[in-house]
Every structure is written in structure tokens, then in C-alpha cells.
């Protein structure tokens, strides 16, 4: 072995989780090594959140330009130049890449090693034949990879995954998307608004992890925009013919054919555990990922697993960064903070956006909690009416005393307005806090105040309240 290193912390994987863990560890002044086999930044920067957001930004402008006549603004002949959109997506990635570059990490005190990491034993990792690392603690942040479903005929021709779709330099004329989770739904709306014909296929319900009322509002909008959505389908066969693809599906016992120019698989992801030598390190794992306890510790006490590779955890960038902070604190200080299972919010960045903090109603029911639902529609909100963005609602779940358990907002800017609710849930606040706070007006955030008023409204007509008012009136 050419070199042996003995850092305090060795992080494997340089996605958003690994980068956060490595920089956090180095900020405490401890020797830190980060191993990455590909480009730094992982899914978040290269194939996930950043390119999707850049695509959706262009799509929103195209949709706004087309809809502008309703506001008395005529924008005729809206044209999409996909080459510019492609360039903007990759410019955004390039502008953000320096934040996690080898040089910047070196500046923080992180040594980056390029190559494939593999455990040799319980506390030794090798990178090829060149480097051996014996660290005090390891943080595994190797993320996940797209799963390609086994459909007869699929492998006989080309198809896209979320890893390759952002390499497209031309707009797909007729796009079939398999997978109606957040990625499939966001990309369906993005490509449709840019001019593709889009068919979105789900084997189960679309946006199945979201509140069904909220998901139906998003799906209705997708259909209004001309996206063909089919759920509960079985994928029977794929035929690649010249420059097109024909997919046979079965729906309600009937077979039908869906044709397109391109096929995008956004169906599922699997944890990236292969080739890591987990068994040599006695790290328990299965198809769902690396098994962790509530402190993100694996069956090998020296090793933590975070982000997409950790079994049973939400797969999103915010979970990966949250985990990174917890794992580093546990590894360095043995503080043992535990993962709070409702701490990680989620947002589907369609228009309307679908945002959740804390529990959904389904989760509250599964946990047999006693709860009350408060709702307020967007069409009662001043800003929503003034801007003509009235599709949506807020749904708040509170316990009997009003403690906020969960919030789902579907509507304009839901991804921004959910932030206040994330704070409220993290601090264990009561819905009264929303009544007491003064909000700027007119804002979409005011729908939160409306539900708080609804919670307390029944009290205002109670006999004892009337009696107090009567007594005070007598006293002058
Ligand atoms: C299309 C799409 C859109 C998304 N949009 C959002 C969004 O809007 N918001 C959100 O919160 N989440 C979003 N996500 C999910 C989010 O991107 C991921 O949950 C998050 O990036 C996972 O981070 P990670 O650090 O755990 O893993 P990854 O980003 O997968 O990084 C893992 C890294 O480890 C490296 N690696 C793997 N094995 C080894 C090895 N043996 N040795 C060395 N290196 C290794 C990989 O090369 C990779 O760079 C999206 C995902 C997709 C696909
Ligand atoms: N805005 C966001 O926060 C955001 C956006 C995109 C992705 N993500 C996260 O990234 C991860 C990946 O997202 P995703 O949407 O690709 O995956 P997902 O697992 O969330 O959804 C995949 C969908 O494909 C379906 N599916 C599974 N197997 C299938 C098969 N064999 N054939 C057809 N359909 C199948 C599932 O039922 C599900 O509806 C998720 O954890 C997601 O939460 C987050």
C-alpha cells in the first residue's frame, strides 16, 4: 500500500450528505478524509434537485407566458429553445460545483481521495491499491441509484433515467415517464410545459407518500395542462421501433399501447451498497439499505450511515444534511442525539407546490393519535385571489390541545410558507402561536392564520366567554 492514513473521521461518498458531514467534522478541527469515486456533489447537484429546479424554472416561465393573456398581457408566439435550457441547467451545476470542490474542501481541512472505497475489515477502508485508511470513525454516505424495472423488451433499445435525462440536448417530442413519485411528477410537468407530449405512468397511486387530498390537487393540474396520467398500471412489454418506443400496459384488466419518442424511468431507487465490503466490516444491510439505529449508528459501532443509503430514512437532500450533523455530533462528542422521525419536511416542486412538515393524516391515524384536522382553501386568501393562484389548501393536524403535529400545504409558494411550520413543529408549538403572530399582508402565509382562527372559533361562543363579556360590560 502506497499510503496509510489515520484520520479521526473518514466519510465515504461526496454527495450532499457526505460533503456536509466532512465539512462539519473538519470545522471542529479533526483530521478528516472524504472518498468519492465520481464527481463531487452527488445527486443533489448533478442529477437531482439542482437540474430539476433549473428545468422547472424555464417551464414556469413558458407556462406563465402562455397564461399571461388572462392577466391582460399578450405574449404571442411563445417559443422554447431547449439548447438554451440545457445550457442553463449545466451552468447552474457549474456555478454551484465550486462550493464542494476539492480545493474548497482542502481549505476547510478535508483531504479528498478520488476512487472507490471498500472495507477490508471492521476499521480499515482501501481505495484501490494506493491508499489504506484506518479511521476512528466512518460515515457512510454512498447514496442511491435508479432502479430499472424488469420489463420484457426494455433492454433492447435506449431509455433514460434521472441520471441521464439532463444530458438531453433536444426536447423529447413524446415522453413516456414510468414512475409517478416526486421525480416523475416534477419532470412530467417540466417537459410538458416546455412542449413535450407527456404520458405519466404509475404502478401504484401517484405521489403515494403525500396527503391524498393534496396529491389530487397536483394531479388535477397536471391533467389540465394536458399530461396523460395513468395509475395502477402493469408494465407488460416494451418495443423499440426505429426512433420510437411502444409500451404495452395493462390497466383494469385491459391491455393498451402507449407510444412515445423517449422513455424515462423514474420508478424507484436502490441504496448504493454494492462493492463496499460491508460484510467484511460486519455492517448489517439489506435491500432497503444499511441498517441504522436511532443515532444512525450501524451494527459496527465505528460506522454511521446517513442519507439515501441509510435504511428506513427519507430519501431527500434535507434528510442527508440533517443526518450529517447528527452523525458528526455522535461520532465526535458521543452526544447521542437521535433522529426525530418527523423532522424532515418534503416539497414536490410542481405548480402548485406540495409541501409537508411533520405528520400526514395517514401517519397520525397509523399511530392511533387523537387528532383534529383544520383546513383552509387558497381561494379564501387575498393574495391567491389577486394573483389568480387559487388552487390549493392548507391542512393542519393538531392534537386536542392544539399542538401542531403536521401540516400539508398544496398551492402557490407552499415550499416557502412551510418553513414557518417546520419551525413550529420542531419547537413543539401550539396553533395559538400562529394566532398571536403578526404576518405581512397580503401573503399566502396568511392561510395559516385562518386555520388557527378556526381552531379557537368554537370557544368564542361558549357560555363562559359570553358571561365574561357580560360582566365586563356591567363594569363599564
Ligand atoms: C430527479 C431528482 C430530483 C430530486 N429533487 C430533490 C429535491 O428537490 N429536494 C430534495 O430534498 N431531494 C431531492 N432529490 C433527492 C436527493 O437528491 C437525494 O436524496 C440526496 O441527494 C441524497 O444525498 P446522499 O448524499 O445521501 O447521496 P448521493 O447524492 O447519492 O451521493 C452519494 C455519493 O457517494 C458516491 N459513492 C457511492 N459509492 C461509493 C464508494 N464505494 N466509494 C466512493 N464514493 C462512493 C457516489 O458517487 C455519490 O457521489 C431528488 C432526486 C432526484 C433523482
Ligand atoms: N422535490 C423533492 O423533494 C424530490 C424530488 C424528486 C425526488 N425526490 C426524492 O428522491 C427519491 C427518488 O424519487 P423518485 O420519484 O424517483 O422515487 P420514489 O420512490 O419516490 O417514486 C417512485 C415511483 O415509482 C413507482 N414504482 C416503483 N417501482 C416501479 C416499477 N417497477 N415500475 C413502475 N413504477 C414503479 C413507485 O410506486 C413510486 O410511485 C425519493 O426518495 C424522492 O422523495 C425528492
TrEMBL record:
<feature type="domain" description="FAD/NAD(P)-binding">
    <location>
        <begin position="8"/>
        <end position="324"/>
    </location>
</feature>
<feature type="domain" description="Pyridine nucleotide-disulphide oxidoreductase dimerisation">
    <location>
        <begin position="344"/>
        <end position="448"/>
    </location>
</feature>
<feature type="binding site">
    <location>
        <begin position="179"/>
        <end position="186"/>
    </location>
    <ligand>
        <name>NAD(+)</name>
    </ligand>
</feature>
<dbReference type="Pfam" id="PF07992">
    <property type="entry name" value="Pyr_redox_2"/>
</dbReference>
<dbReference type="Pfam" id="PF02852">
    <property type="entry name" value="Pyr_redox_dim"/>
</dbReference>
<keyword id="KW-0560">Oxidoreductase</keyword>
<dbReference type="InterPro" id="IPR001100">
    <property type="entry name" value="Pyr_nuc-diS_OxRdtase"/>
</dbReference>
<feature type="binding site">
    <location>
        <begin position="142"/>
        <end position="144"/>
    </location>
    <ligand>
        <name>FAD</name>
    </ligand>
</feature>
<dbReference type="InterPro" id="IPR036188">
    <property type="entry name" value="FAD/NAD-bd_sf"/>
</dbReference>
<comment type="similarity">
    <text>Belongs to the class-I pyridine nucleotide-disulfide oxidoreductase family.</text>
</comment>
<keyword id="KW-0520">NAD</keyword>
<dbReference type="InterPro" id="IPR023753">
    <property type="entry name" value="FAD/NAD-binding_dom"/>
</dbReference>
<dbReference type="InterPro" id="IPR016156">
    <property type="entry name" value="FAD/NAD-linked_Rdtase_dimer_sf"/>
</dbReference>
<keyword id="KW-0285">Flavoprotein</keyword>
<keyword id="KW-0547">Nucleotide-binding</keyword>
<dbReference type="InterPro" id="IPR004099">
    <property type="entry name" value="Pyr_nucl-diS_OxRdtase_dimer"/>
</dbReference>
<keyword id="KW-0274">FAD</keyword>
<dbReference type="GO" id="GO:0003955">
    <property type="term" value="F:NAD(P)H dehydrogenase (quinone) activity"/>
</dbReference>
<dbReference type="GO" id="GO:0050660">
    <property type="term" value="F:flavin adenine dinucleotide binding"/>
</dbReference>
<feature type="binding site">
    <location>
        <position position="308"/>
    </location>
    <ligand>
        <name>FAD</name>
    </ligand>
</feature>
<protein>
    <submittedName>
        <fullName>FAD-dependent oxidoreductase</fullName>
    </submittedName>
</protein>
Amino acid at each position: 500500500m502506497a499510503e496509510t492514513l489515520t484520520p479521526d473521521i473518514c466519510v465515504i461518498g461526496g454527495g450532499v450528505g457526505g460533503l456536509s458531514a466532512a465539512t462539519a467534522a473538519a470545522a471542529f478541527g479533526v483530521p478528516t478524509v472524504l472518498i468519492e469515486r465520481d464527481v463531487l456533489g452527488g445527486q443533489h447537484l448533478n442529477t437531482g434537485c439542482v437540474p430539476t429546479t433549473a428545468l422547472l424554472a424555464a417551464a414556469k416561465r413558458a407556462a406563465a407566458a402562455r397564461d399571461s393573456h388572462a392577466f391582460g398581457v399578450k405574449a404571442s408566439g411563445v417559443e422554447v429553445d431547449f439548447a438554451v435550457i440545457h445550457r442553463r441547467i449545466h451552468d447552474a451545476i457549474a456555478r454551484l460545483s465550486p462550493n464542494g470542490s476539492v480545493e474548497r474542501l482542502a481549505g476547510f481541512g478535508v483531504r479528498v481521495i478520488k476512487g472507490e472505497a471498500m472495507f477490508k475489515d471492521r476499521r480499515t477502508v482501501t481505495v484501490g491499491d494506493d491508499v489504506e485508511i484506518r479511521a476512528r470513525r466512518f460515515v457512510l454516505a454512498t447514496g442511491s441509484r435508479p432502479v430499472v424495472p424488469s420489463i420484457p423488451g426494455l433492454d433492447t433499445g435506449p431509455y433514460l433515467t434521472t441520471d441521464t435525462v439532463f444530458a438531453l440536448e433536444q426536447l423529447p417530442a413524446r415522453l413516456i415517464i414510468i414512475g409517478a413519485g416526486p421525480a416523475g411528477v416534477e419532470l412530467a410537468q417540466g417537459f410538458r410545459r416546455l412542449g413535450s407530449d407527456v404520458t405519466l405512468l404509475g404502478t401504484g397511486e401517484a405521489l403515494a407518500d403525500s396527503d391524498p387530498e393534496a396529491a389530487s390537487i397536483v394531479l388535477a393540474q397536471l391533467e389540465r395542462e394536458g399530461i396523460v396520467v395513468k395509475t395502477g398500471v402493469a408494465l407488460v412489454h416494451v418495443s423499440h421501433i426505429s426512433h420510437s418506443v411502444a409500451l404495452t400496459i395493462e390497466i383494469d384488466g385491459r391491455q393498451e399501447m402507449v407510444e412515445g419518442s423517449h422513455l424515462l424511468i423514474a420508478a424507484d431507487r436502490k441504496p448504493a451498497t454494492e462493492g463496499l465490503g460491508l460484510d467484511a466490516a460486519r455492517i448489517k444491510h439489506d435491500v432497503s439499505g444499511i441498517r441504522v439505529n436511532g443515532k444512525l449508528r450501524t451494527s459496527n459501532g465505528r460506522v454511521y450511515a446517513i442519507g439515501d443509503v441509510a435504511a428506513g430514512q427519507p430519501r431527500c437532500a434535507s434528510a442527508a444534511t440533517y443526518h450529517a450533523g447528527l452523525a458528526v455530533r455522535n461520532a465526535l462528542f458521543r452526544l447521542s442525539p437521535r433522529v426525530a422521525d418527523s423532522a424532515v419536511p418534503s416539497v414536490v416542486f410542481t405548480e402548485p407546490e406540495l409541501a409537508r412538515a411533520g405528520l400526514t393524516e395517514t401517519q397520525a391515524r397509523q399511530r392511533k393519535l387523537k387528532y383534529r384536522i383544520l383546513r383552509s382553501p387558497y381561494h379564501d386568501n387575498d393574495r391567491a385571489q389577486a394573483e389568480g393562484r387559487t388552487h390549493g389548501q392548507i391542512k393542519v393536524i393538531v392534537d386536542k390541545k392544539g399542538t401542531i403535529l403536521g401540516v400539508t400545504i398544496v398551492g402557490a409558494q407552499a415550499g416557502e410558507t412551510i418553513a414557518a411550520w417546520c419551525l413550529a413543529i420542531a419547537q413543539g408549538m401550539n396553533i395559538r402561536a400562529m394566532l398571536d403572530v403578526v404576518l405581512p399582508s397580503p401573503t399566502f402565509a396568511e392561510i395559516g392564520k385562518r386555520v388557527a382562527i378556526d381552531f379557537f372559533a368554537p370557544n368564542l361562543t361558549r357560555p363562559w366567554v359570553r358571561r365574561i363579556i357580560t360582566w365586563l360590560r356591567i363594569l363599564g
